[in-house]
Amino acid sequence: MKYNRWILLPVLSGFFIMGAPAGIISTAMERINEDLANYPVLAGMLPFMAFVWFLLISIPTGVLCGRIGRKNTVMLSLLVTVAAMAFPFLAGTQRIWPYFAAFACLGIGNTMIQASLPALVSNVVPPDQITSRLSLGQFVKAICGTVTPVIALACSGWLGNWKMLFLVFGALAFAAAAWLFFSNVPREEATGPKTSFLSCMRVLADPYILAMTIGVLFAVGADIGLAVAIPAYLKDIFKLSNDAAGTGPSVYFGAKMIAAFAGSIVFAYISAARCFPYLIGMAILAATGLFFAPNPTVFLVLVFFAAVGFANAFGMCMGLAIDRRPDKANEISALMVMAICGGGISTFVMGLVRNAWGAGSITFVLLACLLYLLGLGVFATRQSSRGSK
What we know:
This protein has 389 residues and is mainly α. Helices cover 79% and strands 0% of the residues. The longest helix has 30 residues. It is globular, with a radius of gyration of 20 Å. The relative contact order is 0.14.
């Protein structure tokens, strides 16, 4: 099959929309809490409404990809996202249901796009370039998270209503869907049986795919866990104020964006399997150094290197798995997106550890996640070496 490098652009626009929920939730929740001051408990449940769908509909989305095609599934997910952006305009201090509807649709659309878009990437790039292009997609996704607070500020200042943020993202999601609709993204070849729940489960019989799927669970656990732990560590260990500690994650997200862009270039020339253990090894060294950081500056420098080390772990796990079984891309994408819910496990464990032994002990949970990923990286390198013989 001949691959047109420009056909990747409409697919990458989907990655930008993929980053919308995290950016919107982190940016808009404080304002929503003000709107829903009479419902503080219900307002706190809104993020759950967005992320519970990773567990519930990831595999059904993989099945849907097999029925209507990956391109159509991605377009459908973008249209669901457009619908999600309309509901907040119906909301107010006395109307909580539009926010629940908005966050539910946002979560459904995001789960669908995360479960179908990586598989669609395999339609437009050669198999040995999948990990590189997934890293590029993660870079585009990170851009969305970075610019969302700026867009919200502009909407409040220039347009007079922070809710216009939803209108902006609704328009962008619709534009991405239209661009993809009119593009010449090739359909995947229909080979073998249709995607089903059983076919997804059977893929896990391959030890390599199973190990990579578990790797996603630990990669997301390390990702979310460190992002949540940074402010707590700065506040409890270095006694910074809430405002000062709250700026710490910006270093982390900046490092992730740089690493994702670098990964999109490096993985185009060097196998991700070869890079995997070295990157995670760097992350472990930096994470271990967090115990001994004498001041916030050194701590944040170590956070930067830890983030660079494992920022591409999710993309490497998914890319290497799809590269091994491109005929099962639908099933692999669905399973790995479902594993994203594992990030909630790490944050829960970190909370228990922090309460029991203090903020400094949070790093033990992070290291546990990274040690599995190091073993996975060594395993992937050995498998790659065997395959090249």
